[in-house]
Protein 1
Amino acid sequence: MTTTEILQRAKAACPALARISSAEKDAALLAMADALEAHAEPILEANRADLEQARGSVSPVMLDRLALSPARIRAMADGIRDVAALPDPVGRVLTRVERPNGLVIEKTAVALGVVAIIYESRPNVTSDAAALALKSGNVCVLRSGRQAHGSASAIVDALRAGLRQTGLCEDFVNLVEDTSRASAAELMQAVGLVDLLIPRGGSGLIRSCVENARVPCIQTGTGICHIYVDKAADLDMALDLLDNAKTSRPSVCNAAECCLVDAAVAERFLPMLKARLVDARAAAGLPPVELRLDARAAACIDGTPAGEQDFDTEFLDYILAVAVVDGVEAAISHIAAHSTGHSEAIVTADEAAAAAFAAGVDSAAVYINASTRFTDGGEFGLGCEMGISTQKLHARGPMGLDELSTYKYVVRGSGQIR
């Protein structure tokens, strides 16, 4: 089926989805979660084929991004169940005004319509996006990258089986068959068929969508995330946070890419950082983190001299750019110059420094004494997420059900004329 045919079928399915009840949507989501687990073996078989094809052409951390396991499939199914348990955003009355002439004006939440998602190598996006779209009353059109297409196709087969089981239309969840650039361009240009386009992937994909889309598009994902170690930081806490934010899963957008250290503690902290992220990991047989150091950091520890682009790069790997700064205001200025507006953190026991950082940093998520790895729909109580918006309109940060809704005005009268 061509991409245009899939979009046309998706658009035609919108009225049917708009009419089903919250209970029907929840029943379908639970059936989809069960079907995902029941189809675990064909999904894993497809994923093994994807991994074999990708091996040798992508880095080990990107292979981890692509890989599925029984535990990850269970987590995907549990994510769908979490979405089913959330309140239905559709039909909520956001505001109600009664005018002097007797008109009652209700601002009411409604679905967007057809939501298209272009993503690359994370198969779990398939089920997350489908679940959030269905719960919020939207028909989804998924377009995975070539490397994950076999896995995505097997996941969609399972999700559609769950829809069939509950008697709902399979066209509520769709997967584009073409993984060429032409299909991505077609989604970007599908005026009248796509109501919202969400790219999830690297900076190249996101930039292409933002620059070329003729349909409404959300800028998501690219995360040059910073952790600033203040002079009043608990340095052991700072080590734990940086270790988690950099090494727990370096291939994701909420991983830390840059560490800023106050000059007042740099000579104490930077040797601790190198011992933890480089020496101890190498001794334990783990990939050591390559520290790319500005001149002031290089005066404290050995590492790789930072290149011109290192403070503007989303590494998605065991690499961390490190700079020494003169206090919280300098840290805020550095972040303003280099951040992508995703997630930034300060480690400090100084409430004034924390308040200045929270007020001065203009990113979707700002953390005080916590890892940037929490910027995630599940961790924020959204069930799962459609993506993490790094823009300000109409959504910002992890996108859940509310961000997949718009509104219309329902006006009740008794014969009023103007």
Protein 2
Amino acid sequence: MNTAISFEPETLTVEENLLEEIMRAADVVGEIYGVENCELSITLTDDENIHALNKKFRGIDRATDVLSFAFRESDEPEVIGTEFEILGDVIISLERAKVQAEEFGHSFLREIIFLEVHGLLHLLGYDHIAEDERLEMEAEQKFIMGKLGIGR
């Protein structure tokens, strides 16, 4: 997968190994679902920024852990003349991930990668509103995390 990682605000930082694992997870998901030639944007942010996005785009006035914006579902014009299809954007709150990792009793790395996988599955059309969809998405998440060798 052709993955670009950015920070918002730009002053945020993470360890290099986490960035490598984020890239690896995107590549594995790309291979599994046949979207290895797609373009993906991942933004690592804080609660303040994800709160603003959640409010603006979903009408929910609070921070969340991950947001996904699928390009295929948007009203954006088709991009012509590129060698890659644009999959979409995944935005992850580092602050929320840290809290959740502590709450669930697993590593920060595991939580970030889980949120990335969750977001990527949304970009690929998975959802968890209906019970059968939730069970299917959970099974996919578990399968991918197993392929990545990242357990609780």
Protein 3
Amino acid sequence: MRIPEFLPAHGTIGFVAPAFGCNIEPYRSCFASTQEKLEKLGHKLVNGPNCYAGDGIGISSTPENCGREINEFFAREDIDVLLSCGGGELMCEVLDYVDFDQLKHCPPKWFMGYSDNTNLTFLLPTLCDTVAIYGPCAPALGMRQWHPAIQDAYDILTGKTNKVQGYPLWEKESLKTEENPLEPYHVTEPRVLHCEPAGQDIQMEGRLIGGCLDCLANLVGTKYDHVAEFAERYAEDGFIWFMESCDLNVMSIRRALWQLSHAGWFRHVKGFLIGRPLCFGEEMFGLNQYTAVTSMLSGYDVPIVMDVDIGHLPPMMPLVSGAKAEVTVTGNDITIAMDLS
């Protein structure tokens, strides 16, 4: 597995928009603030051609333009790391224009984003043997005062840390608006981990892999689904799957997990980390966010940790997809140490 060079003190950050760009508020103002903050930290910045584009459907521009931007920015020697400008809806359509063979053979480069960016943060390790960061998109770095989760993401990019821990509180309702675009996370709800087996401390080791379940299920059976080969390449390490969901209700979560399971994706699994779903607290026909998961995954007889700080209800622990990791859960605390050497 290829680990990129970390962002140096005066290194260059490239911004790309393979999903949505920053052409509307509050994202435009957030992105401007992000650039100001990163310039004050001493970094040079390069905007991709689609950062402020809005001519796409469910993404910033046409799939061809978005794919071209990815290919060019990964190949540029004057750019050290890449940050995505946002999530989106149809980044899957960009994949046909991404040159994964080029990405596999050019020097590795950090890419960070989440949600629809799963289409890269998952495929970079599974197709190109290159790690990526499932973490905040660029506009989040523009908040008035960085939450520790944002600092953690920056510290991973710069090589200052390889360890993240759960955060005490999470945001149920955001206060960020077009009028207040730089509002920090409005964290009010205590983090409560739900584990299976319950009442026991948990420790597991394996390679982190996963992302947004909405996107993962969409990739099953496509020409981009090389998970079987990936699983066998790293079978000795085993896998810790991390997943969270955006648009899926509890029935859809159960169906998606059934699909991944029957596609053989969970070979050599050592454990599961499940983020808070955007449908937090929803129940349908007696099925809730917990039983939707356990009904599909308990048969693997490995630890399942739910309501982890991952995904669409911030803050989110930045996770290095493809990296070996050690996960420790003690009571209501979780620590994830990643091997980035």
